[in-house]
Design goal:
Low-confidence stretches: none
Mean pLDDT: 93
Helix content: 25-40%
Strand order of the largest sheet: 1-2-3-4-6-5
Largest sheet: 6 strands, mixed
Shape: globular
Order of helices and strands: HHEEEHEHEE
């Protein structure tokens, strides 16, 4: 129940969004010694990590991985390989390169990602990822998986 002293508004408001994020971050930091310890360190913020596969012959994008690192974690947001280049190890190479950078340059120990049932859950399992969450009907008729992997120094080729 909402107190009658307040009105609820639904417009998109970037200034309020930023204020809300700041206040939530402050509350989280106050409540968590782990998050408090991150304040003021390089691990405090997301650091983008992108790996691109560009075709030497024509300069076209053959595939890519977009993610970020945060607090010793690699988060893979997108991994895509052009249909013409699938099945040749390009996706595995993009993933391995991102994991290598995450481990050797950013001291990451874990990786996480989300994928849908029709995308690549088997691909990620093949590369050492384990399913930790399954969300059926997200969106309706599709299952979303969250997978994680322990990253080990020295086991990720350049």
């Amino acid at each position: 129940m909402v107190c009658r002293m307040f009105r609820l508004e639904t417009e998109v408001d970037k200034a309020r969004r930023d204020l809300l994020r700041t206040r939530l971050r402050e509350a989280n930091t106050a409540a968590s010694p782990v998050l408090r310890a991150l304040r003021g360190t390089p691990d405090e913020r997301d650091v983008p990590l992108h790996v691109w596969a560009v075709n030497d012959a024509d300069g076209n994008l053959a595939g890519g991985l977009v993610g970020h690192t945060w607090a010793t974690w690699l988060h893979v947001t997108y991994l895509w390989v052009d249909e013409r280049h699938r099945g040749r190890g390009l996706g595995a190479g993009l993933l391995a390169r991102a994991e290598h950078i995450a481990v050797t340059e950013r001291a990451c120990r874990m990786s996480r990602l989300e994928t849908w049932d029709f995308q690549a859950p088997r691909f990620y399992r093949k590369h050492g990822y384990e399913v930790v969450c399954v969300v059926p009907d997200y969106p309706p008729g599709i299952t979303e998986y969250t997978l994680v992997k322990r990253l080990t120094p020295g086991r990720h080729p350049r």
